[in-house]
Amino acid sequence: MKKEVYNKYKVEITKRFRLKAKEIVTKTKRRDIVDARNMLYYLCATRPMRIRDIQEYMKEDGYNIGHSSILQGINSMAEKVSNDRDYSVIIKQIEQCTI
Predict the structure, then answer these.
(1) Are 5 and 47 in contact (CB under 8 A)?
(2) Around Cβ 53, how many Cβ atoms within 10 Å?
(3) Distance, CA of 95 to CA of 92 (rounded, Å)
(4) Which domain holds residue 68?
(5) CA nearest 40: which of 76, 18, 9?
(6) Which CATH number does the domain housing residue 24 bear?
(7) Please, is 30 exposed, middle or buried when counting C-beta atoms within 10 Å of its C-beta (0-12, 13-18, 19+)?
(8) Disulfide-capable partner of 17 in 36, 39, 44, 72 (CB 3.0 to 4.6 Å)?
(9) What pLDDT tens digit does each residue of the chain (99 aa) get?
């Protein structure tokens, strides 16, 4: 069930950021892709999903990432959500799409 939620979040986030599905799991520092990935981590963590599960789902998609990097992404997105109304609106919309 958690994998389904992860996949729904991934689809919605790639739509919102106008990315191709595979772009979210590419090794790049491009800001839009990093923000999309961090949003995925954040949404999954607030669901709640274990960091280990997020890590495993990312690995299945071909993206190896460490536990601490996921935590850093979650914290980065949490800060953006609390400081930027646009991010909090997007988060709420995506959460509504996956209910």
Answers:
(1) yes
(2) 17
(3) 5
(4) 2-97
(5) 9
(6) 1.10.1750.10
(7) exposed
(8) 36
(9) 899 999 999 999 999 999 998 999 999 999 999 999 999 999 999 999 999 999 999 999 999 999 999 999 999 999 999 999 999 999 999 998 876
CA distance 44 to 70: 11
36: its two tokens: 């999309």
Secondary structure of 5-49 in the HEC alphabet? HHHHHHHHHHHHCCCCCCHHHCCCCCHHHHHHHHHHHHHHHHCCC
The closest of 11, 13, 4, 84 to 42, measured between CA atoms, is 13
* Terminal-residue alpha carbon distance, the chain: 12
Contact present, 32 and 16 (Cβ < 8 Å): no
Distance from C-alpha of 40 to C-alpha of 77, rounded to nearest angstrom: 9
Tokens 């997020």 locate to 54
Spatial CA neighbour of 5 closest among 52, 50, 49, 39: 49
